[in-house]
Design a protein that fits this description.
Blueprint: H1 5-13, H2 15-29, H3 31-41, H4 49-64
């Protein structure tokens, strides 16, 4: 979610802002998807394009069968 500098600062730097953001995203995404987002946000490292391509190909294969 994009926000102006002031809103982004409020969310990142205050407990109230973080609580608001958590509640907002939980309502918007649901518990499972929000937990996945938190894991992704807190996992260091570069994106693995080769792995993503293999995953996409597998999903297409499952959809076509």
């Amino acid at each position: 979610m994009a926000g102006c500098v002031s809103c982004h600062h409020y969310i990142d730097q205050t407990a109230e802002g973080q609580k608001w953001f958590d509640e907002f995203m939980l309502e918007r995404l649901g518990t499972n998807d929000y937990n996945c987002l938190l894991i992704r946000a807190n996992t260091p490292g570069k994106r693995d394009d080769a792995l993503n391509l293999m995953y996409a190909k597998q999903l297409l294969k499952e959809l076509n069968s």
